[in-house]
Design goal:
single chain, 235 residues, alpha/beta, Rossmann fold, 6-stranded mixed beta sheet, 4-stranded antiparallel beta sheet, 10 helices, binds adenosine-5'-triphosphate, binds magnesium ion
């Protein structure tokens, strides 16, 4: 059984149909990427999965349970965490407080262990534990957004453009950490405009164009696909 199964979802913003029947799967232990240009519907796909922009038709199934109609505020309890585009850390709260919020539905001593684990993954966050999130660099806030998502102990971690607006050396560090999180067993759905990073990190990928999947396959095959090279790899 896949961790995530998305079946023919459509999603609308008013009269605009942003998703026109998107299907994808994420298997146990996989990193799967969704690539595509501006406005292709990548973020909307993650928003539909997490209930922020509910699918108007189709199905979202997590580990065999239909979660299509689960509202966004309950989705964490079902095992999905999203580090959204633009990060959305709570600017006036400290790093530690942001991480605590990621675990707000949970109780018990494992929360402290999970914070320790996030600090091991991102030592920079430990150094900045008391710093206000809004005063940190873009890359540090991205680390915090991922750390906060992990604090929900998800079954599926969704990342929306973790490389956006971040210095290349920090992007590299973030991607190393994403690989580490995956080696620990986490299934990851990764949205990226930067297909180079995405296809390095993922085992499989889907290419989205104007709300439709136009191509999918192993990352190694997408990387050498002439259309992908032309449109997304700047070849
Ligand atoms: N809140 C909104 N209201 C109206 N239309 C929206 C809204 N959010 C997104 N859209 C439209 O839906 C389509 C898909 O947008 P989406 O944000 O999913 O694209 P994306 O692939 O994530 O793009 P980007 O790479 O620029 O982040 C676009 O045409 C966009 O203009
Ligand atoms: Mg987006």
């Amino acid at each position: 059984m896949p961790v995530l199964e998305v079946d023919e979802i459509r999603a609308h913003y008013g009269s605009i149909e942003a998703l026109k029947g998107v299907s994808l799967t994420v298997e146990e232990g996989e990193v799967v990427t969704l690539i595509g240009s501006n406005g292709a519907g990548k973020s909307t796909t993650l928003r539909a999965i997490s209930g922020l922009t509910p699918a108007s038709s189709g199905r979202v199934v997590l580990e065999g349970r239909d979660i299509t109609r689960v509202p966004a505020h309950e989705i964490a309890g079902h095992g999905i965490a999203l580090a959204p585009e633009g990060r959305h850390c709570f600017a006036r709260m400290s790093v530690r407080e942001n991480l605590d919020l990621g675990a707000h539905r949970r109780r018990g001593p494992e929360i402290a262990q999970d914070i320790e684990r996030v600090f091991e993954l991102f030592p920079r966050l430990r150094e900045r534990e008391r710093q206000k999130a809004g005063t940190m660099s873009g890359g540090e806030q991205q680390m915090l957004a991922i750390g906060r998502a992990l604090m929900a102990r998800p079954r599926l971690l969704m990342l929306d453009e973790p490389s956006m607006g971040i210095a290349p050396f920090l992007v590299q560090r973030i991607y190393e950490t994403i690989a580490q999180i995956n080696r620990d067993g986490m299934a990851i759905l990764l949205v990226e405009q930067n297909a180079n990073y995405a296809l390095d990190a993922a085992r499989r990928g889907y290419v989205l164009e104007t709300g439709r999947v136009v191509l999918s396959g192993p990352a190694s095959e997408l990387r050498v696909d002439p259309e992908v090279q032309r449109a997304y790899l700047g070849a």
